């Protein structure tokens, strides 16, 4: 399951939501996207029977199947899904499929029912009490996914791993360039013994120590680090390094450096954004960047080891990078959504459909400057 290196776009930590299920009599749909593995207690019974940590529908006595719709916390390109039936042994669905759609805004369940859905995982056999993993070949960008089970049964967790592709119309001004929800991603890390460094990039404040990144204790005289690809090329203005909830195991010192390279290698030129500085436990630290040079990646070094709750890298995208993000986003949108976006930028619908024939825009296809300016939010 190499695709599991990508974040779970459906995660509740990213504001994912199970917005609809046609049936949830035995166990609530919201459990599908809970953090962590499902738990089980043999003695736990309720008024409707055995209590399960998952989504479970009633036994079906008529033709059809059950389904649940998930709004992705961050829209993106789905690389694979995991349909986890942990603890469902005699009551799991024998088959499942996954569809996806891409829409503007925050539609209601009724509006989503009328949306155009595309199959990304065809109807497939699944096993009980198992992580059923399926790779997804379709490389378009989606906002919602629909899990269908046949004919009924229970699913503990539903993970949707993929590459975040945020709406670039909302990436103007000062943003957190490292944030997962803006397209930041961890590309390298020295140690993930206790927890994933991806948690550094999650929205909001950490709630417990386990919400951050913690490495193992070092005994070799070196130091730990994590490298992050930013949402796009930008200029860093402010940095926050947060050690909240790390009391006896926070990093002692930290530094942040940046580089401007598509794929940094051993010869990449790194320069200081925040020079090595002392950290305090359980504290939010704020710094101004000592360089305004454009960067594509940042590297956070902690000395010698220790935990951090969050890393924020505030800055602005450079103009060329913002334009490139808009063009790539348009290329990844399904046709129906792309037409809607271009039409919303002031282009007649028929002309918008004609423009789509020029895709990919990021690879030579010409998008009228007036349309690009409208999507960038530039004044007319």
- Alpha-beta content class: mainly beta
CATH topology of the largest domain: Jelly Rolls
Number of domains: 3
- Record field, number of beta strands: 19
The shape is flat
Q: What is the CATH superfamily classification of the largest domain?
A: Galactose-binding domain-like
What is the alpha-carbon Rg in Å? 23 Å
SSE arrangement, N to C: EEEEEEHEEEEEEEEEEEEEHHHH
Largest sheet: 8 strands, antiparallel
Please mark out the parts with pLDDT under 50 across 5 or more consecutive residues, or reply none. Answer: none
**Share in helix:** 10-25%
Can you identify the CATH class of the largest domain? Mainly Beta
CATH architecture of the largest domain: Sandwich
**Counting H and I runs of at least 4 residues, what is the number of helices?**
5
Ends distance: 47 Å
Mean pLDDT score, rounded? 95
Sheet-strand content, in percent, reads 35-45%
Structure description:
With 380 residues, the chain is mainly beta. It has three domains: 2-164, Jelly Rolls (Sandwich), CATH 2.60.120; 169-317, Jelly Rolls; 319-376, no CATH class. It is 12% helix and 35% strand. It is built from five helices and 19 strands. It has helices at 109-113, 319-332, 335-344, 349-356, 369-376; strands at residues 17-21, 45-46, 49-50, 55-56, 66-84, 95-101, 118-125, 131-135, 141-150, 154-155, 157-164, 175-176, 185-189, 224-242, 253-259, 271-278, 284-288, 295-303, 310-317. The strands form four sheets. Strands 12, 13, 14, 15, 16, 17, 18 and 19 form an eight-stranded antiparallel sheet that branches. Strands 1, 5, 6, 7, 8, 9 and 11 form a seven-stranded antiparallel sheet that branches. The mean pLDDT is 95. Belongs to the allantoicase family. Pathway: Nitrogen metabolism; (S)-allantoin degradation; (S)-ureidoglycolate from allantoate (aminidohydrolase route): step 1/1. This is Probable allantoicase.
């Amino acid at each position: 399951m190499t695709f599991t290196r990508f974040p779970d776009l459906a995660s509740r930590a990213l504001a994912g939501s199970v917005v609809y299920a046609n049936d949830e009599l035995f166990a609530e749909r919201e459990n599908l996207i809970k953090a962590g593995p499902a738990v089980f207690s043999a003695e736990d019974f309720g008024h409707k029977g055995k209590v399960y940590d998952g989504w479970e529908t009633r036994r079906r006595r008529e033709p059809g199947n059950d389904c649940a719709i998930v709004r992705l916390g961050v829209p993106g390109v789905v690389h694979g899904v995991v349909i986890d039936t942990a603890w469902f042994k005699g009551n799991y669905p024998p088959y499942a499929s996954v569809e996806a759609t891409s829409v503007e805004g925050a539609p209601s369940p009724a509006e989503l029912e009328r949306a155009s859905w595309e199959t990304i995982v065809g109807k497939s056999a699944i096993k009980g009490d198992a992580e059923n993993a399926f790779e997804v070949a379709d490389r378009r960008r989606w906002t919602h996914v629909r899990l269908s089970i046949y004919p009924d049964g229970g699913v503990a967790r539903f993970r949707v791993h993929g590459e975040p592709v945020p709406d670039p119309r909302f990436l103007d001004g000062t943003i957190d360039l490292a944030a997962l929800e803006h397209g930041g991603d961890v590309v390298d890390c020295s140690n993930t013994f206790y927890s994933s460094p991806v948690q550094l990039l999650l929205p909001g404040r950490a709630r417990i120590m386990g919400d951050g990144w913690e490495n193992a204790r070092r005994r070799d005289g070196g130091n730990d680090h994590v490298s992050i690809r930013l949402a796009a090329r930008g200029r860093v203005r402010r940095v926050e390094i947060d050690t909240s909830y790390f009391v006896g195991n926070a990093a002692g010192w930290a530094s942040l450096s940046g580089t401007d390279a598509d794929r940094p290698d051993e010869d990449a030129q790194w320069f200081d954004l925040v020079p090595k500085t002392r950290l305090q436990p359980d504290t939010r630290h704020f710094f101004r960047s000592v360089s305004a040079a454009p960067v594509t990646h940042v590297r956070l070094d902690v000395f010698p080891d220790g935990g951090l709750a969050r890393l924020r890298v505030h800055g602005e995208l450079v103009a060329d990078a913002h334009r490139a993000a808009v063009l790539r986003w348009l290329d990844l949108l399904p046709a129906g959504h792309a037409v809607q976006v271009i039409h919303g930028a002031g282009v007649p619908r028929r002309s918008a459909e004609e423009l789509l024939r020029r895709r990919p825009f990021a690879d030579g296809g010409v998008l009228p400057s007036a349309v690009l300016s409208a999507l960038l939010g530039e004044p007319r």
